[in-house]
Amino acid sequence: VGNSSNNSSTATNSGGGGSCTAAATSSCTLEEKARLLTNLSGAAHYFDIPKLESDIKTKLNAMMLEHPSLACAILDESSKMLSGEELVLLAMERVRARPKAALLHWNKGVPPSSLAGTMNGAGISSTFPSIGSGNNSTTAGGDGSGEERGGVTSLNASLLEQVIFDDQSTASELTKFLCLKKWVEGCKHVVSSDDIDVPRKMLDTDEILSSRTPSKPARKLIDDAMPAATAQPNVTPPPSPTSKSPSDESSIVSQQQHRLTIAKHLAEKLDLSLIPASDLSTTITDSKLISTHDLYQAYRLQALNAERTKSKVFVEGAGLGEVNGTYIQRGVHEGTPMYNKEGVWRDREEVFRIFLCTYSNGNKSWCLSIVPKGKEPGKTTDLDFYECPVSYGKGGGITGGSYGGSAE
Question: Whole-model pTM?
Answer without folding.
Answer: 0.64
